[in-house]
């Protein structure tokens, strides 16, 4: 999954050391014949082709020997959130640094500039990491260093002469290979050092952020995804993280990467930048390599970055192990690409980076920048069997889709807001496993296969991004309706990130989205969806959230039993939920205290979060409260069927609208009867009622079927919290429940205040009447 859900670009590493596999063979065992599965060197090469996610999911579970060989790859995650209190951070995060986690996820939200308390918490984290850094500990042991109290108080360690000597001795040959075979203590003990760092949130790309790198000497993976703008010194990143293999920089606005030489930097450089770039291009490749050793970098992803392409071209000879390069250059308004030769870049990659298998290069901006179809020829020549495609929305056309290697394409990432052919493609592809389009408008009407939101009339002409406007306007109304009604063919989808447009906060719209995803994509492990706010990203316009109440069908996602990460909404909003809206998350079978009358009761429970006393939810009471809505829904269904029948009679044609019965197909082309039946109640309130009964039945047999609990594999969840990393299921549920209790108290207070005010008014009125 996308790293849990966090490692989206996990790849095997040619530079991973093989010495980490312990030599369990003795002299006596060497005399006997050994199979290939018993030789550590051979197994190291086999395991090296599998990413860390696969190692955590499968390899360590095969047998004890394989667990020992791969225990250095087991994830030990630590999450830091600036929204937490100082005491919580010290007890739950900083104190765990001594346990030496290997992955750190940070979410920082700076609201008030340099005076924000989040920056004080950030500096404390930086100081704690610098104190726990193995390289700095080694230096302190050799020369003596300030005490721990001085470090934690916020003081910064100055690089000593001895520390620079240790770094120079440690970084010999190819960074990340020879250095790892040295005598470094962290590597000798199962690589117990911090190697992966992910930063998200709202913070400027400035010196405050990059201070954290000073305490991460052995970092191999750096991912930064923030909602801000600023600048990045590539020279400082590469110089601070000498073992870096994966670098991912992304922002919703733009980030500038200045400098003409990313390796050396431009400090004290008196030459003109263009002159320096030209001189670099004129040097032989061998002479340029002598300026620094080759880097261990294997994956480079830059989204919305501003830089000169010539600087990137001068950088390529020093990354011979590069496997993935995906660059989306951000251009200011009304500017045009300069030196944007994709063909030239592909030639340099073919010459200097022979291992490249994933490639993307495009220009993004406030205006649409289109390229001719033939401009993609160098990409297909460089990576003819590319499994992971990143493509601009404006370039995602039927002519390009036909050129995709459908039998090997498993990952698709869309850049841009308008991608009108996405739905049509998803209805035909069967091998797709990962779809990432978090800022792409996807009309939710595509999921309304029964046309319930329009009372039986087809969506014609009014659905933007539907794939049948523009060159498709010649299609008949029947063809258009049939296109909308098609169901996705990618039933094995593991990752889905999508922004839905044309959505309101009406319960029916949310039920359609939640119900469609839970039925058509049952294998999902990572789900990130949002409403129109995902595309607009305008802070001046208050976003409209999806309906997260029980009536809105959020509980329908509980069908996704393999879900490990769930993110609904990308902004922080007060949802004003009630206890009944959350009861199904922690639902357990419960009865009345007297032992009777509790045959259909869902009782909230949890190890840490407990409901208010008497907070129970009866399915019968829920259905009774919805009796009027359910009766009205049946009447609307009759009207929908009549309207649809009248439309079919008045619009004869070959295309026709066959309904879901003719478009739900399996991989072999046969009709998927089971899926058709499961989608019969899509968008109806009856679908929620049926699910609540199913949850109640499963909870009644929870001792027999432990897997029936809601989301047994859930690791991180975020429901309109503004934190894309999310929290544990327990903490996020507690946050939602706490907000629900606060809303209830406020309403009770307003109600009480209103009663007092009414009494005062009546008293004054009586006095006036008497006078």
Account of the 3D structure:
It is built from 28 helices and 19 strands. With 771 residues, the chain is α/β, with parallel strands linked by helices. Residues 5-21, 151-162, 168-191, 267-291, 461-475, 588-616, 654-662 and 704-708 have low confidence and may be disordered. Strands 1, 2, 3, 4, 5, 6, 7, 8 and 9 form a 9-stranded parallel sheet that branches. It has a 7-stranded parallel sheet with strand order 10-11-12-13-14-15-19.
The poorly predicted ranges are: 5-21, 151-162, 168-191, 267-291, 461-475, 588-616, 654-662, 704-708
- The number of strands is 19
Which percent range fits the helix content? 25-40%
Strand content: 5-15%
CATH architecture of the largest domain: Alpha-Beta Horseshoe
Count of runs of 4 or more consecutive helical residues? 28
Mean pLDDT: 74
Largest sheet: 9 strands, parallel
CATH domain class of the largest domain: Alpha Beta
Protein name: F-box domain-containing protein
Organism: Linnemannia schmuckeri
Question: Keywords for this structure?
Answer:
7-stranded parallel beta sheet, 35% helix, 28 helices, single chain, 771 residues, Leucine-rich repeat, LRR (right-handed beta-alpha superhelix), 3 domains, alpha/beta, F-box domain-containing protein, 9-stranded parallel beta sheet
């Amino acid at each position: 999954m996308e790293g849990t859900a966090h490692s989206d670009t996990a790849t095997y590493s040619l530079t991973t050391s093989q010495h980490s596999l312990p030599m369990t063979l003795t002299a006596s065992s060497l005399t006997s014949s050994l199979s290939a599965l018993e030789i550590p060197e051979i197994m190291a090469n086999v395991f090296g082709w599998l990413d860390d996610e696969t190692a955590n999911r499968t390899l360590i579970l095969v047998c004890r020997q394989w667990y020992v060989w791969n225990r250095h790859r087991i994830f030990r995650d630590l999450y830091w959130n600036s929204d937490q209190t100082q005491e919580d951070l010290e007890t739950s995060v900083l104190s765990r640094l001594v346990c030496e986690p290997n992955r750190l996820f940070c979410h920082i939200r700076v609201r008030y500039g340099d005076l924000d308390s989040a920056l004080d918490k950030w500096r404390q984290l930086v100081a704690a990491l610098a104190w726990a850094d193995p390289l700095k500990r080694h230096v302190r042991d050799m020369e003596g260093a300030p005490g721990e109290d001085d470090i934690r108080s916020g003081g910064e360690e100055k690089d000593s002469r001895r520390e620079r000597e240790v770094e120079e001795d440690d970084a010999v040959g190819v960074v990340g290979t020879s250095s790892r075979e040295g005598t470094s203590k962290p590597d000798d003990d199962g690589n117990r050092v911090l190697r992966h760092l992910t930063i998200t949130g709202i913070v400027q790309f400035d010196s405050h952020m990059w201070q954290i790198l000073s305490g991460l000497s052995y970092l191999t993976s750096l991912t930064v995804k923030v909602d801000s703008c600023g600048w990045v010194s590539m020279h400082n990143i590469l110089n601070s993280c000498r073992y870096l293999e994966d670098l991912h920089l992304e922002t919703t606005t733009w980030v500038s990467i200045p400098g003409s030489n990313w390796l050396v930097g431009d400090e004290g450089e008196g030459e003109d930048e263009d002159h320096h770039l030209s001189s670099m291009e004129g040097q032989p490749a061998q002479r340029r390599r002598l300026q620094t050793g080759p880097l261990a970098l294997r994956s480079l992803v830059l989204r919305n970055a501003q830089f000169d392409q010539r600087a990137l071209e001068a950088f390529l000879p020093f990354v011979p192990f590069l496997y993935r390069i995906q660059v989306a250059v951000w251009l200011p308004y009304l500017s045009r690409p300069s030196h944007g030769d994709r063909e030239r870049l592909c030639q340099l990659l073919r010459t200097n980076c022979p291992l490249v298998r994933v490639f993307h290069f495009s220009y993004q901006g406030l205006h649409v920048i289109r390229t001719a179809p033939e401009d993609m020829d160098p990409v297909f020549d460089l990576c003819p069997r590319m499994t992971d495609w990143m493509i601009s929305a404006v370039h995602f056309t039927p002519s390009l889709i036909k050129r995709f290697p459908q039998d090997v394409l498993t990952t698709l990432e869309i850049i841009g807001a308008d991608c009108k052919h996405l739905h049509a493609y998803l209805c035909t592809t069967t091998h797709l496993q990962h779809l990432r389009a978090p800022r792409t408008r996807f009309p939710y009407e595509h999921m309304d296969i029964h046309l319930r939101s329009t009372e039986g009339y087809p969506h014609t002409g009014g659905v933007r991004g539907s794939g049948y406007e523009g060159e498709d306007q010649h299609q008949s109304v029947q063809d258009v309706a049939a296109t909308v009604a098609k169901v996705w063919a990618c039933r094995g989808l593991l990752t889905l990130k999508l922004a839905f447009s044309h959505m309101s906060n009406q319960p029916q719209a949310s039920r359609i989205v939640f119900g469609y995803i839970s039925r058509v994509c049952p294998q999902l492990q990572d789900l990130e969806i949002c409403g129109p706010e995902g595309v607009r990203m305008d802070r001046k316009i208050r976003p409209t959230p999806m309906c997260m109440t029980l009536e809105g069908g959020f509980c329908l996602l509980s069908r996704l039993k393999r879900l490990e990460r769930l993110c609904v909404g990308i902004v922080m909003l007060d949802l004003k939920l009630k206890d009944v809206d959350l009861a199904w998350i922690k639902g357990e079978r419960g009865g009345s205290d007297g032992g009777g009358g509790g045959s259909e009761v869902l009782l909230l429970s949890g190890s840490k979060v407990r409901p208010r006393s008497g907070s129970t939810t009866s399915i019968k009471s829920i259905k009774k409260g919805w009796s009027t809505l359910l009766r009205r829904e049946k009447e609307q269904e009759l009207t929908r069927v009549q309207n649809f029948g009248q439309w079919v009679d008045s619009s004869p044609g070959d295309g026709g609208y066959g309904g879901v019965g003719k478009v739900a197909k399996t991989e072999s082309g046969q009709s998927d009867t089971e899926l058709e039946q499961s989608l019969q109640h899509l968008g109806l309130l009856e679908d929620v009622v049926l699910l609540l009964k199913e949850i109640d039945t499963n909870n009644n047999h929870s001792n027999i079927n432990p897997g029936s609990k809601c989301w047994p594999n859930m690791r991180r969840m975020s429901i309109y919290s503004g934190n894309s990393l999310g929290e544990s299921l327990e903490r996020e549920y507690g946050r939602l429940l706490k907000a629900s209790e606060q809303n209830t108290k406020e309403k009770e207070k307003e109600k009480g205040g209103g009663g007092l005010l009414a009494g005062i008014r009546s008293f004054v009125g009586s006095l006036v009447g008497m006078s």
